[in-house]
Amino acid sequence: MNRQLKRDTKVVCLADLEREGSRNLSKMIGEYYNEGAMDLITLNDNKAAYDRYSLRPRLCRDVCAVDTSAAVWGAKSTIPVGFAPTAMHAMAHPDGEIATSRADSRVGVPMILSHYSNSSIEDVVATGKSGGNPYAMQLCMVNDWDTNISILRRAERAGCKAFVLTLDTPSLGRRLNEHRNNFKLPEGLSFPNMPEDVDMRNMIQDDPRMTYMSSVSWDTVRTFIAATHLEVFLKGILTAEDALKALGTGAKGIIVSTHGGRRCLSAHVDSGIRRGSDIFKALAIGADFCWVGRPAIWGLAYKGDEGVELALRLLRDELQTTMWLCGCSTVHDITRAHLGRLSSSGEFVPLQPRGKLLPELHPASRAEQISQTTFSEKNKMMELESQVARVRVAAV
Ligand SMILES: Cc1cc2nc3c(=O)[nH]c(=O)nc-3n(C[C@H](O)[C@H](O)[C@H](O)COP(=O)(O)O)c2cc1C
């Protein structure tokens, strides 16, 4: 009585999905997906960061009609979460990103396709046509500018609603598992969003169409954004200083950052989100939307598109339960007042409402005013930055 639907015999949460999905992967592939850079300190901290916050439920709020949906890129998502770009889904399941896309379209959530996907942006977007869920293409800028622009144009033509520029990869992190396991692209797989004649199996590249552009500057970002009508989101921003820089580029939003009180930018967050209550906490702290990476892979490895759908439905069930218990009928009802933290003296302290961080800015004078942001405002941002869930992009 009063129990919720059991969706799978073995998997009732994402931790189960991680275990069951990973069982179906070889050591080389499993460690590529599940591990991160160096000693995995950031990777482990990503998940722990959410556990440092506790919920403050509010009672007697009439939650008969909880609505978990949220807006993203001019569309509605049934939950405030979508799939972040993760490379090479075909190593987890032969249908690769097409399977992920099928599940996304059935559940009605957005998907960001990785530059390093094994399916083309055209095929992936076409799979979701009936669902109406939005897609974005992601790019790590490479040294050959024409290659960057050709990926952008393909995304525009394919019907993407947004474009995600990953800025945290002037170089790849040092992933020890890849060295230990001699990681390589399995036979038969390719990167169809890259120029056809690049050597895709060469892991140590010198082809400018494949090598990361380590010279990317804020001017490069501005030039790229000016070349498209798509909404561009900058991914990998982790400091208030860089969030301020992003404001002047024409970007519509950032993924992973501090959540400045003033919203000239939409603030999305990813890394370490594994439960509906983590999504709730991220929204309470100030995120507009959340993304998950590895859960798509575990779902694929477990049961193809059904496994990916399971991941999304579990997150939705858990978010709905959290909203019920916290007395929130819509995602807009979720506030910082729903969270608290244990202080060093052992008291449980509710999170304080966040003040406005920057003055209201007229767009025309925004850049100038930002450069004049006072020292105390900057300090306040730095303080908030340390409070915000300390999400880190562990592996790209
Ligand atoms: C196996 C793997 C591949 C990834 N590939 C990309 C990529 O191609 N581009 C990118 O911007 N981020 C990439 N990421 C980072 C994800 O977009 C996302 O930031 C991260 O997976 C979120 O953390 P989570 O897996 O803890 O949910 C990758 C992450 C993983 C685990």
UniProtKB/TrEMBL annotation:
InterPro entries: Aldolase_TIM, Alpha-hydoxy_acid_DH_FMN, FMN-dep_DH, FMN_HAD. It comes from the Eukaryota. Its cofactor is FMN. Residues 6-344 form the FMN hydroxy acid dehydrogenase domain. The active site is at 259 (proton acceptor). Gene3D superfamilies: Aldolase class I (3.20.20.70). SUPFAM superfamilies: FMN-linked oxidoreductases. The keyword Oxidoreductase applies. GO terms for molecular function: FMN binding; oxidoreductase activity. Pfam families: FMN_dh. FMN binds at residues 85-87, 114, 138, 166, 235, 257, 270-274, 293-294. CDD domains: alpha_hydroxyacid_oxid_FMN. Glyoxylate binds at residues 32, 175, 259, 262. Keywords: Flavoprotein, FMN, Oxidoreductase. Belongs to the FMN-dependent alpha-hydroxy acid dehydrogenase family. This is FMN hydroxy acid dehydrogenase domain-containing protein. The lineage of its organism: Eukaryota, Fungi, Dikarya, Basidiomycota, Agaricomycotina.
